[in-house]
Amino acid sequence: MSYLQLQQVLLGSGGVAVGIFLGAVIGLSFRARSAGTDGLFRGSVYATAFIASALAFFASVVIRIFF
Question: What global pTM score does this model have?
């Protein structure tokens, strides 16, 4: 895989990460208001959403490269 192909894969996977981050922030905000912050990473909606988006980004890159 060339540098340009890798760059295209990374840019294409960025949209997945942004979408997951925004969806997780919205969903976890509702959850935090109704059920509290128990179970969130460090009790933070944004930190938990960031972890979710980072994992989704990594999974998207792996899927685009190997499948």
Answer: 0.90
